[in-house]
Amino acid sequence: MKRTTTLVLIAGLAVTAAACTESKRARNAATFGDRPADITCWTYGTETFSGRSTGKVENSDEGRLAFVDAANGRYTTVDGDCRVVYLKEGEEGAPAA
Question: Residues near 33 by Cβ (< 8 Å), separated by ≥ 6?
C-alpha cells in the first residue's frame, strides 16, 4: 500500500513539473512570439556570435539557440552562453503592433 502511494505521488509530481514547463513555454511564446531579438553568444569568455534574428528565437533543452539571421536570411543555430534581448515595439527592426 505504501509503495503504491509513493508511486502515485512521484507520477503526480512529474506531471505537475511538466505542466509548469509547458505553461512557461506557452507564456514566453505569447509574450515574445515573432519579435526580433539581438543575440550575443560567448564561449569561454570569447564572443562567438553577435547578430539579430528576424523573429522568434527557439531555445532547445541542450542550450542551443535556433533562429533566422536577419543579416543573411539563413536558419542559424548557435551554442554557448547567450544573451537574447527582444526588441520593443517601435524600436528599429521591431514589427509594428
Answer: 55, 56
Whose grid coordinates read 527582444?
A: 86
- The three cell numbers of residue 36 are 526580433
Helices within the chain (DSSP H only): 2-32
- 43 touches 79 (CB < 8 A): yes
Is 0.70 surpassed by the pTM of this model? no
pLDDT, one tens digit per residue, over 14-57 is 655 555 566 666 555 545 567 899 999 999 999 999 999 998 89
Separation of first and last alpha carbons in the chain: 57
What is the rounded CA–CA span in Å between residue 51 and residue 42? 12
Spatial CB neighbours of 12, under 8 Å, sequence gap ≥ 6: none
